[in-house]
Design goal:
Helix content is 72%, strand content 0%. The longest helix is centred in the N-terminal third of the chain and has 28 residues.
């Protein structure tokens, strides 16, 4: 077997190359878009996007922490053949559970973290149950649960006085309401003021998810349901149970992401009329990582890096909407990594299209 063919059969190598090519293509496309919008400032704008994260890497890590969790949430559902578009709602409910226990119960940070996991898991239970018992498309139920979750969060913040800040539109800041609920920083705040142990928790959770999915019987059963549900049932695997459990676990991961974000002490929940985008960004993380749990760490850091760089582009005269378009183009071109993986496998394996 030639070296080229061995590389072609190495799925990890193919996935990494495909993701890197997707990033390069996205950056080129983004630069072309900058040229069309403002050709004079395009080089400086792209340089700001690519360099700002280096000088502010602590902020990149801070922003990537909840993204790792929502990426894992979407990735584990993908492995079971499900599309968890309900991560935004699970993330929001997880955040609300954490804030409720922090501001009303006055619980310490570790209890609040556990409650965020429980909140997200509960919110993931219903789409999983409807899918398993009634074969209701999880996309439909997840979208409905996103809106229900957002409105429940708004209602909770506005109705519970202990959770409401003096301006009447945001949750009370943790440093004023319950400093013990702020996650330990262990000196990481020297890199960025709100950076804390959440980044380590997220990374450890990613490793645990990888181990469970790759090295345990339970993970094998989940993956078998995703590859061929009928075949899994024929082999004696309880597909309905695994569907429910997979969405519950996905919800728990997204909920933990919400908890890690709001327990950092750097952001307050603002009553919204639109669904929080963090869960939707998790889709990009999972796609770019090819649904690999360890890959979600690096893809989340990369996407956070891009988003922070997009903010720096505004100094070159690009409007906020322009930077959002550029970063969105780069991020969502990650969806082409699947097509690239197929093409790369064909190139390395020397497969040619058969003539009819």
């Amino acid at each position: 077997m030639t070296q080229k063919k061995r590389l072609g059969e190495n799925q990890a190598f193919i996935s990494i190359v495909a993701s890197l090519l997707s990033i390069v293509i996205g950056l080129l496309f983004g630069f072309i878009l900058l040229l069309l919008l403002n050709a004079k400032n395009a080089p400086a704008g792209m340089w700001n996007m690519l360099s700002n994260g280096i000088t502010d890497f602590g902020n990149v890590l801070y922003r990537s922490t909840p993204l790792i969790m929502t990426g894992l949430s979407v990735a584990i559902a993908f492995k079971v053949g499900l599309f968890n578009i309900g991560a935004p709602g699970q993330y929001t409910i997880g955040a609300m559970a954490a804030l409720f226990f922090a501001l009303v119960i006055k619980a310490p940070w570790y209890v609040c973290v556990l409650m965020s996991i429980v909140g997200g898991a509960v919110w993931g239970f219903f789409p999983g149950l409807f899918k398993a018992l009634f074969n209701v498309n999880e996309v439909i139920t997840s979208i409905m649960m996103n809106w229900i979750g957002m409105n429940c969060a708004n209602l909770l913040v506005l109705s519970v006085k202990k959770m409401l800040a003096s301006d009447g539109a945001r949750s009370l800041a943790l440093d004023a309401g319950n400093p013990s609920a702020i996650m330990p920083r262990l000196g990481l705040d020297k890199l960025y003021v709100y950076l804390n142990i959440g980044i380590f928790i997220a990374a450890i959770i990613a490793v645990i998810v990888w181990f469970v999915m790759s090295k345990t019987t339970f993970g094998y059963e989940l993956r078998a349901c995703g590859l061929n549900r009928d075949g899994a049932i024929y082999a004696g695997i309880n597909a309905k149970r695994n569907i429910v459990l997979s969405v519950v676990i996905a919800g728990a991961l997204a909920g933990l992401g919400g908890g890690l974000c709001y327990l950092a002490g750097g952001v307050q929940y603002t009553t919204e009329q639109t669904i929080l985008s963090m869960g939707f960004d998790g889709i990009s993380v999972a796609l770019l990582a090819n649904s690999h749990p360890i890959g979600c760490i690096f893809s989340a850091i990369f996407i956070s890096y891009l988003k922070l760089g997009g903010i720096a582009m505004q100094s070159q005269g690009y409007a906020t909407e322009a930077t959002d378009i550029v970063t969105a183009v780069i991020i969502y071109l990650a969806a082409f990594s699947l097509l690239l993986r197929i093409k790369l496998s064909s190139v390395f394996n020397g497969k040619k299209k058969e003539v009819a």
